């Protein structure tokens, strides 16, 4: 199956603000020429609703939203409401907004802004569309209204770095869109917060013609400059530019229902310079924090297998093992449930000059009915074992293992591996109930090293 192709999607720009018309056409051509896949031009007042829709309907890969910006909330008359409601039935309209609150300028009275925000939220739910939210110097009221009238789907546009908004977005499943200010070196709070946005909620935008990123800062912005923002986000999150393109594009396609979602059944998927292998979706645990219960996607890769691949399928998906920093058995299930395939593919990869890592829940010996650690000698260069807890009681609560005595089996797997496999790590997620210090002491007593993972960060 050929790989899915991805180009960046500018989820928030204002093409209708670019004039004259020739300059707008040039900006659009420049954007698509730079590799953008699509753009969403976002209306902000009654005239721009019509203009944005006209631009979108004239181009295959341009879409639009309709609504009234909080600056112009005073213009939201009954006639304008009726007009916007009608626009939401048009095929190229993929969102409502932008709406929200802006207490920085107060161009419209605050009570009118709040009423307009509530109306847009109701319309979005009724129309079955996501809502695009603007919040400036108004986080308290923005969060109160969102709690009062939770949107079905929403995106916080031009994310400011507010930890309170980030926490609310994560809890409510709202998307978070990052714009040019993330490239500003003095935007320390934003640059730090961007590291903690869950992959499945991350978007990028230009908000052009405003907020041009470095190195275009101070000049008129345009969608073609989205690459600068995306590259900075990638650097801050410790992934590749290609990873960010794939992650944000899949998210934009999903949220706005544009383009084609990638098919399931990815056997091999690349993150940074590592190639991960998805050989089964079966697992002997049901961990409460596992991403598989929230999404089919990891870093933009769809891992929902339609069938379990053969060893030959896996080898074909890998190609040249030496082309990657490492080959990692991971995926959406427990690799040792297919121990024979792991051993065959690992031996082949080693013969071809590859380095092999096994990510496991440490229950392989329970699953297979015998001690499997000796069989991994010479095949696995590194093993990463999900310890997940400091004691059996906590482990059973968090992981709901299929096998009795699973925690003790995990400890024995780590202890045994330390004498057979060159590099042994245990991992825990820093979540409520997990005593990281106790896990570290336990891991060290078993001869391994502890790595702490953050909740919502996968891959």
What report would you give on this structure?
The chain has about 450 residues and is α/β, with parallel strands linked by helices. The chain has helices at about 20-35, 45-55, 80-85, 110-125, 140-150, 165-170, 190-195, 225-235, 240-255, 310-320, 340-350, 365-370, 390-400, 405-415, 435-445, and strands at about 10-15, 40, 60-65, 95-100, 130-135, 155, 175-180, 200-205, 270, 275, 295-300, 300, 325-330, 355-360, 380-385, 425-430, 450-455. It is about 35% helix and about 15% strand. It has an eight-stranded parallel β-sheet. It has a seven-stranded mixed β-sheet with strand order 9-10-13-14-15-16-17. The chain has a two-stranded antiparallel ribbon with strand order 11-12. α4 runs parallel beside α5 (about 140-150), α8 (about 225-235) crosses α9 (about 240-255) and α10 (about 310-320) packs parallel to α11. The chain is elongated, with a radius of gyration of 25 Å. The model has no long low-confidence stretch (mean pLDDT about 95).
Briefly summarize what is shown.
By secondary structure, this protein is of the alpha/beta class. It has helices at residues 21-33, 46-57, 78-87, 110-127, 139-148, 163-172, 188-193, 226-237, 241-256, 311-318, 339-351, 364-368, 392-399, 406-417, 436-445; strands at 9-13, 38-42, 62-66, 93-102, 131-136, 154-156, 175-178, 202-204, 268-271, 274-277, 297-298, 301-302, 326-329, 356-360, 382-386, 423-429, 449-453. It is built from 15 helices and 17 strands.
